[in-house]
Amino acid sequence: MASFQIKEQFYLDDQPLRLRSGALHYFRIHPSQWSQDLFNLRALGCNTVETYVPWNLHEPQEGRFDFAGIKDLFRFLDLAQEQGLYVILRPSPYICAEWDFGGLPAWLLAKPKLRVRSTDQQYLMAVQRYYHELLPRLQPYQIDQGGPILMMQVENEYGSYANEHAYLRQLLQLMRHEGITVPLFTADGAWDQALDSGSLIGDDVFVTGNFGADVTNNFDNLAQYFARNQRKWPLMCMEYWDGWFDQWGQSISKRPPQEVAADVATLAKRGSFNLYMFRGGTNFGFMNGCLQEQGQLRPQTTSYDYDALLDEAGNPTAKYFAVQEALAQTIPGIEQEQPRLRAARAYGEFAPDGALDLDQATQQLAQISSQYPLTMAEIGSGYGYLYYQTELINYHHPDELTLVGLADRAQVLINGETVAVQTENDPQKSITYSAATGAQIRLGILVENLGRINYGPALSAPSQVKGLVGGVQINNHYQSGWTQTAFDFTPEMLARLVFAKPTVGSKLAQPQLTHFTVALAEIDGDTYLDCSAWGKGCVSLNGFNLGRYWHQGPYQTLYIPAGLLKQQNEFVVFETEGRAVTQLILVEHPKTSTNH
């Protein structure tokens, strides 16, 4: 058993220790790649790996916990220890991380008047149940129990959200009650207001700073904060932002490798650091986060490449080698190795063998009826798409339809044909519709959850509740009598679909699911799905949701780890913009808006 202490320095078994860490999110990386990534982190010259633990992934439905496959945190910890790496673990209820709702589960939104990240009893009871399931499993992984975990996080950047210290103390007590004995810490921006609001320095909870530039001044601010509070603690940057995340419709973020390398050298000279990110990975499924900027929702991309030291596929970049060289020059005798590489290949082009339009698929899935529209959290997993349907009397003249409280993006279908698209970012405006024949009009509204806000005060915004939150007005009245069908692309949903023979066309009247059977004689590398000819939607492979694509870019491909491929593969493409999906192309290299 080892002892880890935080005094004027970090001490492991009474020997001074500086932490050189890199962030790897096990939930953004296929498990078959964990070991190689951990090796490459050690090869860089690091001795520690850091990861968040996303609550919403491990408790997808209230009271149902999942730690299998890509969610197997404990296997990841075992592999880290096998590589000789220590672990910084961040199991706080909220993680930010450009992850949907900052890691908070969507089902919290169905609880009336619940206030997240506070002493609200509904919220704390949910956290307590989650911690009672998670933390006892982590006890044997602590450094004083023979495991690799050096310390754990209480809350994340809470000083940028609120300042209820009673809430932070409740989390502290819950962690200790569930057997967490290693040192605890908080992480906040390295300025006084954030540190005062988000830390528990009076309770001897270690304080760390997050920043991506101006290393000397940020470390100076942290040191001055310690001095004012009579603490002699080591300096640590818990998140050194070596890159940045990307948003749909914007340019890819880049930072010069030598700029990052110079900062890392400064960090290593003065204290300890964690590179955020070492490898970013992928926002598989519908787990991308979203920001609200100037009143506009800005969802993040499926790729979480982050311009990190390893690219989205796990291969070292120029930034990796620049930082490795900077560490070698700064720390005499540091142990480093050559990193390992991953292969990728183009597996070819494939024709579809099945298709269903939105109405056909709806008939094969469960439908829930209600007088007024239900939200995503009320009806299903809270992610993906929700299809609302009702029938209107045809008065044989134009009528006005208004979506009240839309979150986030809606396609309006009249008699099975898309007539309008509206988003939360649009000013609330009416949509004119009519039908030439028939006594009734079939109204369908497909609402997509583009991703929940993951940072800032808007974390508690009404827009976090997805769907038609306020209802639908026809002229001057609210329409009643709805059926709703969840398209959340879980394995259970996909298993219920029986595909018909596809028809070939250049323009589809409504969203469509297209099925491909892809036979591979040999699987000898990762690959990329070319989405550049499509509009918008998502793709599933063998029941696993690869994530969203969108023609506005900047990414035009979806990354596919080799570990997801089999000799016989089933792809399902859900295209919502009316573009015909006539072939599936697996290419060797990623494409972006600037290089395809």
From TrEMBL:
UniProt entry tagged with the keyword Ligase: no
Annotated catalysed reactions: Hydrolysis of terminal non-reducing beta-D-galactose residues in beta-D-galactosides
Start and end residues of each Beta-galactosidase 1-like first all-beta domain: 373-485
Keywords: Glycosidase, Hydrolase
Domain spans labelled Beta-galactosidase galactose-binding: 516-568
Lineage: superkingdom: Bacteria
Residue ranges occupied by any Glycoside hydrolase 35 catalytic domain in the UniProt entry: 9-328
Keyword Hydrolase: yes
EC numbers for this chain: 3.2.1.23
Pfam family, one: BetaGal_gal-bd
Transmembrane residue ranges: none
Entry's family note: Belongs to the glycosyl hydrolase 35 family.
PANTHER family registered for this protein in UniProt: BETA-GALACTOSIDASE RELATED
Protein name: Beta-galactosidase
Native source organism of the sequence: Lapidilactobacillus achengensis
Lineage: Bacteria, Bacillati, Bacillota, Bacilli, Lactobacillales
